[in-house]
Specification:
The protein starts with 5 loop residues before the first helix and ends with a helix. With about 100 residues, the chain is mostly helical. A hairpin with a 2-residue loop joins β1 and β2. The protein has one domain. The protein has a two-stranded antiparallel sheet with strand order 1-2. It is about 35% helix and about 5% strand.
């Protein structure tokens, strides 16, 4: 089974070429090249909880620290955690990779 990226799972339309770009803009998770491959995703598609500026329930979320509790309850976060199991990268690990501190 192919692993989905957040924009595919949530059908938000914020990916490049998506239906809701004019209204909501391009989601930073869809363009975050430094997160490419994390949790077997494309760009930040399976690391969205660690990327600032993503949307949740129709509103922009802040930094990882501010949105962590919401993300832990997210059905997509839980799916990725389950699919990746022991290889799952947490927000802290993702941030270290994105910031180049690993």
């Amino acid at each position: 089974m192919e692993k989905l990226n957040c924009w595919e799972f949530k059908k938000c339309g914020r990916e490049p070429g998506g239906a809701r770009i004019a209204e909501l803009g391009v989601c930073p998770a869809t363009t975050e090249r430094r997160a490419d491959g994390i949790n077997n995703g494309m760009k930040g598609g399976r690391a969205c909880w660690a990327i600032s500026g993503t949307f949740c329930r129709g509103k922009m979320q802040g930094t990882y620290a501010l949105k962590l509790l919401d993300c832990l309850q997210c059905d997509f976060y839980q799916l990725v955690s389950k699919e990746e199991m022991w290889n799952f990268k947490t927000g802290e690990e993702i941030l270290k990779q994105i910031e180049g501190t690993t």
